[in-house]
């Protein structure tokens, strides 16, 4: 029988081509080992609750009440839920017609979009229009919607930082566009050089590619750097000159682990720059409930906000959103709660602050523990995680390790990460999944393992790494300490 | 300044081309009127809770507890939740690592996929493999994933019934494929004629299109018919001969309003047919928590099950699913609850049965009220809604109404539906959004308005319709009764 529509040979080529390393070979092998009974530490994906982070109590109380509205009339409800959670649940239910079981408008519940707009205004100091905010099933879905609107074919290019979060490479491949890389400079703390950027665009143009958009990830994933205002200004000016839409992936804006460079949104910097840029540069900014101190990944809540996108284009994006009817409504409620949490004086305020501060401070300590741990290892160097949730150490693999990997038909960093997984149960993602300069190797790990487990994890890592290096190093060229 | 990447002119043409009438012109106008204070009855979309259907109690209790796991240790929890809901919540939480806040595997929680497989086995009498079941954010997202895997370009065709649910036309346009229509015959109760199907494929082939898949919607949307076993056998044989993947949209399988033709899954019919077909015909079946007596649209839960899809293709579909990390976890729990509801002897069983039977019986009565109501109107004929949630009456528009519409630049059925909306607040979808034969006009309405409101709605409809007909009819050619 001839091959069929859903046989591998006949699949959409873009589907076959795309790669998503975060759940690639390493993850699949880790899942196998877990099935076989090995204890696996999944640090391949920023999934805090899977590594033991507790959900914030107040939002879970509110969502539980929204899911069970009949409790609101139960005389005993006050025994298990605080009054402010009950009031907030009533408020949310009043924003819907039909509660959590009804499709909302395809852009999301108007009342929640209004709360998001008010949050953005408080954050940036400029008003925001709820009609230009679309709620999404997590930020990834929003990114894919926008890329789908932009990309018309292989001659449309999207500037993406390298190393990058592979959502971008995978989506661009899936949509049949071209990824135009710009390199972040590891020795300059993963900074971005506008001259390199210019060169990337020139090279792409030479190949017949029209660069149409530029992605920034701030704070960086996997690289953890926080962009400075000066850098953001350069980027915005560059987008203006080159007529690019700026896509601002700002999902880690709550995850900041140093005080020198607080998070500043691309939108604030753009509007601060004034006319003509503030009215001309197109910007789409993305946010999520999956990161921050919330970590509510499984709920799939997110939004994007559009700046300087003309109404006719917004309408088209709305139309496409409407095909999937609506983002999940509980995820929308989480977004409302995230942007409008308990206030001073509310019954749940102290608990909310205590819980979120606890998570954030612990993440900050873990960021240090991890960077210090990696830097204590032989042939490993690592920039400090200024923000986001990842550590991205460079692993200087000895030539013999590279040869061995080549013989096994594996990329050298994949080889290293597989060995690490088998030896320690630590499931990381090889740097090649994010892109790296030729001949340089990394891995990405989250900083999310529980704080009390961190010393043992770093010790196991060091033991594995140093033995690995010992095994593969050419001792003639190195002296052992 | 030259136009920018996210200006209308520069958008992806497939984005601009696609149409989704369910939330199209009529819906937008209805939303405007609602903002202006008019009472709107949204029957444009199968959204039961928005029209007052109450959620089933037990699943909401379970999900509330899963969202608030700290309640499981609360000594007062038994005062507001029954013991079987508490036990079920614990069981679900035990299936996750990290509860509802953690990404699951991109195919969904293994334990829930196992429950789905067991449900399918009970329903069809054949075992089902959880590894071939992927949970999705509602059925629509699953359909789009599968179409995305199949469609390589404009010469790939997908057979779609006309009238059809516009998810199919919109997704095929968005993905750059070709829709190949096959017509359902209104006078034969929306039946399907295999000879017409053959002709559709031949015509497509003549135009250079390779037909690769065939969509069936059973029970039908918008047409409401239930496919007979004989019809399903013909379809499967046809798919075998023509080497097509059969896409079985079976989201309304719980919504059956007659006893002559119960729902039978395409999978059961296929496996009943035995070798070689049972091992050769590729089938993907879709289901959801949004329909049935659940109507949990806002939760966005669904699944697809693959039959005879080779492992390498399944892997590719898994890879693409992994780019969006995971379907929302609460929606997965709803799916687990739907396929494995309370059993006889459970504390909540009686209530669950009472609630679901109440909804289903009321829907059956409403199906009759609506069909009878439409058939009592001048120039309106309507097949009985055997299943699903819609009524799709044919509106025989007088020539002068068609002329007036043409003068206003509106399709005649859009013109009629807009007038209906302005006069009565009833928000329907014109038949042209689903496809209909040239010169024949319909509208789609859900049968979902509350039963007690139904007589008034049908009366308002009749009053509007009969006056409309009166106004536009050429009295020379008609006699008034």
From TrEMBL, chains A, B:
Molecular-function annotations in GO: alanine-glyoxylate transaminase activity; glycine:2-oxoglutarate aminotransferase activity; L-alanine:2-oxoglutarate aminotransferase activity; pyridoxal phosphate binding
Q: In which pathway does it act?
A: Amino-acid degradation; L-alanine degradation via transaminase pathway; pyruvate from L-alanine: step 1/1; Photosynthesis; C4 acid pathway
**Co-factor(s):** pyridoxal 5'-phosphate
Signal peptide limits: none
Q: Which UniProt keywords apply?
A: Aminotransferase, Pyridoxal phosphate, Transferase
Q: Which reaction does it catalyse?
A: glycine + 2-oxoglutarate = glyoxylate + L-glutamate; glyoxylate + L-alanine = glycine + pyruvate
Q: Which biological processes are named by the entry's GO terms?
A: photorespiration
> Taking every annotated instance into account, which residue ranges of this chain make up the domain Aminotransferase class I/classII large?
84-449
Checking InterPro entries in the record gives: ALAT1/2-like, Aminotransferase_I/II_large, PyrdxlP-dep_Trfase, PyrdxlP-dep_Trfase_major, PyrdxlP-dep_Trfase_small
Q: Which GO terms describe its cellular component?
A: peroxisome
Description of how the protein assembles with itself and partners: Homodimer.
What PANTHER family does this protein's entry cite?
A: ALANINE AMINOTRANSFERASE, GLUTAMATE--GLYOXYLATE AMINOTRANSFERASE 2
Q: Which family does it belong to?
A: Belongs to the class-I pyridoxal-phosphate-dependent aminotransferase family. Alanine aminotransferase subfamily.
This one is known as Aminotransferase class I/classII large domain-containing protein
What organism is listed for this UniProt entry? Answer: Solanum pinnatisectum (tansyleaf nightshade)
